[in-house]
């Protein structure tokens, strides 16, 4: 391999190392403290007939009719109980504001608390859903139920997949509001709200739905590879909006605050997305609606809102509006099923990233392999075998070309000696030599270049998808989305003291078993070829396996498993192909040569 190709490989590898060093030395900033949870109220309409914007008062301004944290805690509740969720619905506002995910725990410990999805006003990270009717025309604000209106449950019972619940509120002036809430076996709520007009005059109102978050989440990671914030689909176009983009939006006159608005959506959804969880509003199919992300700066409240057109309810008429709300983990199979049932692009609520054309098929294959094998670590190794098999024709040409270049090495050295300092003559002679022997010097770089997007795509899959969260391998490796839990610090569990905290500098220094195997596999793969003659390149290549070993030590252990398997398969392929071309790598000799001190004359 000539100097240009060596430089290309060196530049690629060093660029990767620089990226790793940057994110180790300059980690993402810690999230700011979450503001106190405010109370809220629905603003009255301006008579234009538009659905009103949502506003919030600071905690000290508990105006009449506005729910306070104490009122929320005292309000009657309806229990939610499914195989995957439990919680309750507050009759104050009829809000879904208490939800936990039975199948997921905060940590990998068996006695860890289950994950809290939604929380009521007054709780840290208050997070809940509201539905309602905004008054329009001459209809007064107090003629429709507000966020603090106490509903009455019709009948008894709890909300389960087989038993919906019905709430009702009569305004005393001829309008009866009714809300039926049902839930499926997964994570989708169906909310059907209706208005019956028993009065003598027609009234106008507009149905709306919203998801409310008080402040940014306290566990915000702010990592470059992960989207956290709002996510929306509008007429086939996906939008991912970071948390800080919503307050920075222009003030929308129709909403009276910073807002990112999309009007006239005929098919879509909107909500908030965390690392593994999300809450999404899906208005009824066939309706045209506006969707908006708003921010109340004074109260530090974010809202994802859907506004449907104003409806006229004639005397004796009942008008109904249906909305779905997803609240749960971003499980691929569940989202895929909802997408097939008619929710456009719902699988894309998972953050597949720029390389979605790689991350999607890689995840699908890994998911199917895990269903077949039943062990995510073995599935990653099998996935590596499949990827290497797909790339084998390219790798074969590369290794054959490298083997032939080894045969040309004596002629190349002779040519360099004869040309002396005339580099142009050396380059021309080498190109003629390559052409004569039908050798492509760039072929050795192609497998390395192909591995870079695959590596980052797999990193994205392991870091983002919930199927890898707390996925076990064997022994101490019970979470492939987390770094290697073993450490040289306690001699891999032989000593009675613990290991350094994950993510600390000590954890990067006292690496675990998997990073150590990674360094060894990369070192052996490198020793298939003699060290470069250039002293600087020789030193850099000699250090590279151990630099990667420490840099990748803090990465997800599933990614390190992939890299070890990739290095092992690459080593085997290259060794066998070189043997088939009549060149037997002197691995032991290359290792011994790598530890010899370079003579001063050779350096000059």
Characterization of this structure:
With 604 residues, the protein is α+β, with helices and mostly antiparallel strands. The chain folds into 2 domains: 41-350, Beta-galactosidase, Chain A, domain 5 (Distorted Sandwich); 359-603, no CATH class. It is built from 15 helices and 22 strands. The strands form 4 sheets. A 9-stranded antiparallel beta sheet has the order 8-9-10-11-22-18-17-13-14, with no helix packed on it. Strand 3 and strand 4 (85-90) form a beta hairpin. Helix 7 (409-419) runs antiparallel to helix 8 (423-437). 37% of the residues are buried.
**Overall average pLDDT:** 82
Count of domains: 2
CA-based shape: elongated
Strand content: 15-25%
In spatial order, strands of the major sheet run: 8-9-10-11-22-18-17-13-14
| CATH architecture group name of the largest domain | Distorted Sandwich
> What level of helicity do the residues show?
25-40%
CATH class descriptor name of the largest domain: Mainly Beta
Number of strands: 22
**CATH topology heading of the largest domain:** Beta-galactosidase, Chain A, domain 5
Low-confidence stretches at least 5 residues in length (pLDDT < 50)? 1-11, 17-67, 595-604
What is Rg?
31 Å
What class would the helix/strand composition place it in? alpha+beta
Q: Give the end-to-end Cα distance, rounded to a whole number of Å.
A: 21 Å
Helical stretch tally: 15
């Amino acid at each position: 391999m000539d100097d240009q190709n060596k430089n290309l490989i060196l530049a690629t590898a060093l660029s990767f190392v620089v990226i790793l060093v940057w994110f180790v030395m300059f980690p993402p900033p810690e999230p700011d403290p979450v503001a106190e949870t405010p109370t809220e109220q629905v603003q009255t309409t301006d008579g234009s007939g538009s659905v009103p914007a949502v506003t919030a008062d600071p905690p000290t301004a508990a105006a009449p009719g506005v729910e306070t944290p104490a009122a929320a805690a005292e309000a009657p509740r309806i229990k939610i109980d499914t195989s995957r969720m439990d919680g309750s619905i507050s009759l104050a506002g009829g809000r879904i504001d208490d939800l936990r995910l039975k199948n997921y725990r905060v940590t990998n410990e068996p006695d860890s608390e289950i994950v809290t999805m939604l929380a009521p006003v007054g709780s840290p990270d208050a997070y809940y859903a509201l539905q309602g009717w905004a008054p329009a025309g001459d209809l007064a604000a107090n003629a429709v139920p507000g966020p603090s209106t106490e509903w009455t449950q019709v009948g008894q019972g709890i909300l389960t997949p087989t038993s919906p619940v019905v709430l009702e509120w009569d305004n005393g002036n001829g309008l009866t509001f009714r809300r039926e809430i049902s839930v499926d076996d997964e994570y989708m709520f169906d909310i059907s709200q209706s208005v019956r007009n028993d009065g003598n005059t027609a009234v106008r109102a507009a149905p709306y739905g919203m998801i409310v978050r008080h402040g940014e989440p306290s566990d915000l990671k702010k990592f470059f590879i992960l989207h956290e914030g709002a996510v929306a689909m509008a007429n086939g176009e996906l939008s991912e909006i970071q948390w800080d983009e919503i307050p920075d939006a222009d003030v929308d006159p129709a909403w009276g605050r910073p807002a990112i608005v999309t009007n006239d959506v005929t098919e879509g959804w909107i909500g908030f997305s965390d690392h593994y969880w999300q809450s999404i509003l899906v208005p009824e199919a066939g309706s045209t609606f506006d969707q908006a992300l708003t921010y109340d700066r004074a109260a530090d409240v974010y809202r994802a809102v859907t506004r449907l057109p104003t409806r006229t309810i004639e005397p004796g008429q009942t008008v109904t509006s249906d909305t779905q709300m997803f609240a749960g983990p971003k499980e691929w199979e569940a989202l895929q099923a909802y997408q097939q049932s008619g929710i456009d692009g719902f699988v894309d609520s998972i953050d597949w990233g720029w390389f979605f054309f790689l991350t999607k098929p890689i995840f699908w294959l890994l998911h199917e392999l895990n269903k077949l094998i039943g062990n995510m670590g073995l599935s990653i190794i099998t996935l590596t075998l499949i990827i290497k098999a797909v790339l084998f024709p390219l790798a074969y040409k590369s290794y054959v070309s490298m083997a032939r270049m080894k045969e040309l090495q004596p002629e190349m050295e002779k040519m360099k000696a004869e040309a002396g300092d005339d580099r142009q003559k050396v380059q021309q002679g080498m190109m003629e030599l390559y052409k004569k022997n039908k050798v492509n010097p760039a072929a050795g770089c192609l497998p390395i270049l192909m591995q870079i997007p695959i590596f980052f795509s797999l990193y994205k899959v392991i870091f983002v998808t919930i199927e890898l969260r707390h996925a076990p391998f064997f022994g101490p490796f019970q979470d492939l989305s987390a770094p290697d839990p073993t450490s040289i610090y306690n001699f891999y569990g032989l000593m009675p003291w613990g290991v350094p905290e994950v993510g600390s500098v000590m954890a990067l220094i006292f690496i675990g078993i998997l990073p150590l195997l990674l360094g060894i596999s990369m070192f052996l793969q490198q020793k298939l070829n003699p060290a470069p003659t250039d002293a600087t390149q020789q030193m850099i290549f000699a250090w590279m396996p151990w630099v990667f070993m420490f840099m990748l030590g803090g990465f997800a252990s599933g990614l390190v498993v992939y890299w070890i398997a990739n290095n092992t398969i690459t080593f085997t392929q290259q060794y066998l192909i070189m043997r088939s071309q009549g060149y037997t790598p002197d691995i032991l000799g290359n290792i011994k040569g790598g530890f010899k001190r370079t003579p001063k004359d050779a350096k000059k």
